[in-house]
Amino acid sequence: MKIGIGLPNHVAGVGGALVVEWARRAEQRGFDAVTTIDRLIYPSLDSVTTLALAAGATSTVGLVTNILLAPLYPPVLLAKQLATLSDASGSRLVLGVGVGARPDDYRGAGVEFDSRGAILDDAVTVWRRVWSGAPLDGETALCPAPVTIPVLFGGKGKPTLRRVATLGDGWAGGAVRDYETQASFAEQIRTRWLDAGRTGRPLMQTSVNFTLGDDSVVAEGRRNLGAYYGNKPEYAALNVADMVDTPADAHGTVQRYRDMGFDQLLFHPSVASLDQVDRLADAVL
C-alpha cells in the first residue's frame, strides 16, 4: 500500500512557500504522494495551483487531489488545467473528485448546489474528451497529446457506486475511520465494478487527519480541524475525535487499511508545521 501526506493548503492562512518546502521534504522522506484538500470559501490555498507548485518542486512523488470539488469549476477549463499539470509533472497526477456538502462554496462559484451531481457526471465526459485529444470546437484539440489521468470518486452513496463502476478508476474514501463501513463499501464497489463488465480492479484510496507532537501541538490540530469543518458542528466533532495524534495510532491505521486491501492511504495534516512531515515519516515509513 502506498502512503501519501497532505500538503497543508487547507490550513487557514498557510503560505505558498511552505507548501513548496513541504513537498520537497515529503519526497525526500520517501512518501509516495502529496495531496490537497479543496475548498472555496475559506482562507486556504487553491488545490490545483498548490499541486502545480509541488510538481515544480519535486520529480517523483505522486500528486493527488483528495478531493477536488469539481462541479465548482468550468469543465473545459479544468480539463485543460489538469492536462497541463499531468503533462508537466510526467503523468504523476491522480484526480480525486467529489461534490462536497457546503452550499457556500457553490454560491461563491455561482453554481447551482442541487445540480452538483449532474454537473459532475457531465464534466467527466468533457474531461475524457479533452484528454483524448478530440476537438471540442471545430478541428482544434485542447491538449498537446492524449493525457491519462486516473479519476477517483469520493462519497459513500449510490451515486458514488455508479460513478466508480461506470465513469471512474476507483474510490477516494473519506477521512473518518469507520473501518467496517469502509470495508463494506469497498466490497460493494468491487462487485459493481465487475457487474458493469469492467476489467482489472478499481483503485482504493482513503485518508485520515493527523497531528503529531506534544499536547499543545495536538490541541492546535484539533482547533484547526474544528474550524475547517465548523459549518457542520456534528461532523466537525467527529473529525476532531478521530484525528490521529500518536505515532502508534498512525502505524496502526496503516496496518488496518493495508489489511483491508486499500491501494493508498493519505495523511492530511491539521497543523502547518514542517516537522509534521518528519514525525509522520518516522511513524509510518
Automatic annotation (TrEMBL):
Keywords in alphabetical order: Oxidoreductase
Gene Ontology molecular functions: oxidoreductase activity, acting on paired donors, with incorporation or reduction of molecular oxygen
One Pfam family, short name: Bac_luciferase
Keyword Hydrolase among record annotations: no
The UniProt record lists the keyword Plastid: no
Residues in Luciferase-like domain copies: 1-243
Gene3D superfamilies: Luciferase-like domain
Name of this chain's protein: LLM class flavin-dependent oxidoreductase
Organism: Mycolicibacterium hodleri
